[in-house]
Amino acid sequence: MSRFLISCGGTGGHVSPGISVAEGLVARGHEALLLISTKGVDARLVGKYPHLRFERMPGTGFSWNPFRMARFGVSQAAGLAYCLRLMRAMRPDAVVGFGGFTSAPVAVAGFLLGVPVALHEANRVPGLAIRTFGPFAARVYLPHGIRVRGVRAAATRYAGLPVRREIARMPSAAARQALGLDPQQKVLVVLGGSQGASSLNAWARSRLEMLASEGIQVVCVTGPGKGVPEAKSLQLQTGEQVKAIFMPFCDRVAELFSAADVVVSRAGAGTLAELIRCEVPAILVPYPRAASDHQRANAAFFERQGGGFVVEEAALGALHSEVLDVIFNDWLLRQFRSNLRRMDRANSLELMLADLDGIAGKGTEARHNPTMEAAA
Description:
This protein is α/β, with parallel strands linked by helices.
């Protein structure tokens, strides 16, 4: 049995793969402790997994704003002190980081204490934590075709984002009934990732009547603090009822995506991995101010692979007609779903679990490493 410390806090796109890997490791007989942030989105998501162990660590995200940058530096120092204390007590055999502001202190603590560090990057433009600490890591998992300067080829493995085991496509009729939707009507899902997207929320609200007039039901996940739960039925001249549901958060992703004919979404790596797993075509609207413009790169790759297509934020006025062109085109939807099945052939989770077994085996001596003994 090996002990793993997994850093995965800050956004749903970091927490979800951490949970997936932790469940896989525990199923193999290992111990896993997940480090998350103090943000509300982390607490909401991890509440579904009482069988896993979580700890909240201090930290805030990076910013070029001078005040926020200073706050970031102080929080990173506090995070490093926290991680050093935790690792001296836990003595993990390996550390796994999924990027974001919680990964840097864990990686540094691992380097200082001689514990093997593995880092995972899901986006097609590697983030700051991966670019900074990747060259020193025992293993760096990257999307296919992506390289990070300074990371040795021998330390690189190509693996997509590991998806939680409960996220899998289910019959659309059952998913729609579970969400209170009409199984016979088309369904459009709109979401902006775990934080929501105000522009997509506004688009969905402004187009409700036009979509309803075409017999399209709408489910919009607004994000925390961007709206209250709301459901309404729009009456058509024919007397038919068309439902619209707005919710701040959805932890029933498999039902949500399985119910959809089409999803309009941001292009975070976590969302794309779940869209692929649930075989649901998407119209992606990349967040234009994402770090290093990584969402545009993610969306372009998704489009090239045939999972859907991209509409820029500046062209949201054309999104309505694009939705109508796709959602009633059954032949095109079948083609998209076929491409999505092909994209999901590689089992990233099993690849990572087998590889982490080997990394932890090499790190077992770290429990009795003189550096760690002295630090304790």
